[in-house]
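ok so heres the complex, two chains, lmk if somethin looks off
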Amino acid sequence: MNVLIVEDEKSLAKEVQAFLKKEGYVCDIAHTGKEASEKIYVNPYDFLLLDLGLPDYEGLDLVKEAKEANSEASIIILTARGSTDDKIKGLDLGADDYLAKPFSLLELSSRMQAITRRKHGLKKSITDVHGFQVDLTNRSVAFKTDVISLTKKEFDILQYLLINKNRVITRMQLTEHIWDNALEVDYDSNYVDVHIKNLRKKLGQHKEVDWIETVRGIGYRLNLL
Amino acid sequence: MKLYYKITLINAITRILIVAAFLIFTPSLIYKTAIGHTDARLEKMKAQIFHIVDTKGIGEFLQEEDSTFADYTVLKEKFISIEKVDSLGVDTFVTSQRDIESEILEFRILKHWFTYSNTKYLLEIGESVQYVRDLNSILREVALYLLIIFITVTVVVDLSFMQYLLNPLRKIESKLLATKHPEKFDFKRLNTTTTDFRYLDQTISEMMRTIQNAFHIEKEFIANVSHELLTPISILQTRLENMIEAGTLNEEAEHKILESQRTLGRLKQIIRSLLLISQIENNQAVKNEEANLRELIQEVASEIEVRMEEKNITLVVNANDEFVYKPCNKSLLFTMLFNLVNNAVKYNKQNGKITITGNAVKDEYHITISDTGKGIPAENIESIFHRFRKFNTTEESYGLGLAMVKTIADFHNIDISVDSRPGEGSTFTLSFKA
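and the predicted structre for the whole thing:
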């Protein structure tokens, strides 16, 4: 998949590019709005990661242009402005998602996966996790024939751990994910611990869940080969 | 007391004093003047009488040698009398009552002693001054009425004139009263010809502008700093994530990096919170939604319920009245309630209790959040809503939760109050006005 990263902060663009490359994306970088505008018209992209705060360009105009020239591309707005007004405008113009800076790369990639899943449908929407059938599209979990009822947050956590399997996910990353980046809420990471505890309890009634590993003092990891 | 009442009152008092003095002194003044004139007339009459005596002799008045002459005018306002006396005296004016044909009247009398053909005589010329007395009493009555009218009229005129004159001052006053926050000050120029008021208005406006600027600079500073900090944090965060992704680190290094990420996350949260507060304060937050407060309470409660197990806390939600609050920013209201309930969990004791109530009170809606936590000492209550003020340093919090609560409440014009007893718990009350 082709990604255009539009970001005037060079080192940030570089880090995003490095990460996405490892994830299997082909990345292009534009440091200015003008450059981005040209690239959009020339190359077909699957993803546009768009920083709104460009010095030479009104970021929202770029969304409009991209919708014209590269209508297939999914657009994720990345911004430090963080005003809800921008968010609404951006989504109204046809952006697919919105991520406030500073964002976690894992969060970014999970959003990109979600968009892909939504747009194209995943080849295999049901994943087998140690005997549990996790359906990411219909957001359900079953063990053999028993459907396990999870709360929204419990499923979000399971899904996030699954998308980022075999990686340590910090409680902070999980918290940000389940609160939909609403960092304004005076949360603390205890919420995540309680949700994980409940998740383990619910799944544990069917089969031992030693595959959700607690990384002491840091976070959690879902081990899956 | 209002200034213009005071001025009018002082004016009225001065006038009453002047009028009282006038009423007191005028009669005697009139009397004295009248007597003076009478005396002059009496002297003139004396001269006329002596002119008659000189040309025609005293016989004109006295027929017989030892008889007495007395003559009244028809209306008894004047009389002349000449009588023989044994000794002479000095000319005098006297005022005395005379009984004339059984009518007692007050007369001004000129007494003049003279010798004519070796005989001593006393000439008395009298003129009634009764009319002066009568005049005075009439005058006093008329004056009293006139003066009452005069005072009433002037007080009314004063009041309306003062009101007109001091109107600009009242406008300044109401302008200041309407300004709950310097941000809300109305800079419209005051329309007045009175230079003092114009100067006052200008000075206040200038001061307000200075204050507004200071506020503005402070807010802008926070917004800019926060914003500028977010980019480097972004770079750091992604870089740290990439280091872990590379998979080349040993376990210890990976652990350190994960911990650094957590620290970075804290930094991120503080900056985001500050940014949000400054956005709300700069009126950049939208406020065009409506929220059913009962439902909102339920939402917050269900969101936070998972935390109750941790300390085995009992949560009681008692919100039955429906109340739709608008215009508002729903997610901000959620954040506000969430932070309050979250604090109630955080600072609660083991096996404690949290009670959330929602009641419609007249046209207001009151939400209370009570906990059985350690409470807030009285001396700290004032400052709990201040930024970065934290009294308990062991909890994972950055001292911005309540500052944000306050900011959101102010943004929505919600009254917030705290009642707390150390050792027993705290109750936060939010009053939403319809």
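quick notes: Chain B touches chain A through 49 residues (CB under 8 Å). thats all i got rn
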